[in-house]
Every structure is written in C-alpha cells, then in structure tokens.
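Quick one: co-fold with adenosine-3',5'-cyclic-monophosphate.
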Amino acid sequence: MEGNQQLERTFVALKPDAVQRGITGQIIHRLERSGMRLAATKMVQADDDLLEDHYSEHVGKDFYKNLVNFMKEGPVVAMVWEGVNAVENVRKLVGETSPKEASPGTIRGDFAHVSYEHADSKDKAVRNIIHASGDPEEAEEEISIWFDEEEIHDYNRSDVKHVR
Ligand code: CMP
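Sure, here it is.
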C-alpha cells in the first residue's frame, strides 16, 4: 500500500443470514461501487475457536452464546477491503449495529429491521447481515485471524485514478 493516502484494509464478514438469503452479491456490489478494492475473499464455516478469537471482547456477555450459534448456522463470506480510510468508510456503508437504528440507505438499514429487544425476547441473536471492523487496529487483528497473508491479493483496480 502506498504511503500518505490513509490507505487501510478492513475485515468484513457477510453473516450466515446474508448467505442464506442470497443477498451477498447485492452487498458486495455496494462495497465495489464505492471504489474500494476487494483484496481477499473466501467462504468459511466458522467454529467455536475462530469465533472466540474474532469476538474475544464479547466472550462471557449475555448475548455471546446466541451470537456464536448464529454465526455457526452456515458459512460466512469473509473479505478484506482496501481503500482510503476503508474502516470508517465501510462502517458508514454498513450502518448502525442494531438494524432498528440503522438508517435507510445503509446495508443493515436496507436489508434488516429488528431490534435488540425483539431478538432478546426470542432468545436469538440480532441478525444484522454483516460485520465490519471498528478501527484500524481491530481490522489488522481480524484480518490475521481470518486470512493467511498469501490469501490477500495485490492488484490495481482499473478505475483507481478516478476513485482515489
Ligand atoms: P458485529 O458487528 O458482528 O459485532 C459484534 C456483534 O455482537 C454485533 O455485530 C451484534 O451482532 C452483537 N451484539 C453487540 N451488542 C449486542 C447486544 N447488546 N445484544 C445482542 N447482540 C449484540
């Protein structure tokens, strides 16, 4: 990555609800059309160990068991996206964590709607479509949990002079 452009990588996972609903293409399209570069992708069936590493800050919380069971319901699409301030920009496209609070036009706002209260009343995890890293340090940590360095590809988008 060239210096002085705030070029960052961020980790994104399309959760089992997105895969099972067949909306992964629509979500990837939204990220691609922003001009950010898809640097890595693979489908992964997550297990307890992987999720404990990924969600280490949530281990032991009330919602942890339901969150892990949800994330193991089926494969996720794991990705690395690169761009200028990619962490912040992807989070903006993703929207608030709780779908009820996520604005229209965001991925969670357009593809989900439920509240934490509703999910809690059903003793289920909030199905919120997508995970995206919260800050650049977390992004590098999450990328290293999900990907080997040789799975991350270096190529140029042909529209790079127009998008950054
Ligand atoms: P995600 O972006 O994957 O990161 C952590 C996840 O924990 C989050 O999405 C939600 O799915 C879940 N989560 C965070 N806070 C709560 C909460 N208060 N109740 C239920 N689930 C939560």
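If it helps, The longest helix spans residues 136-146.
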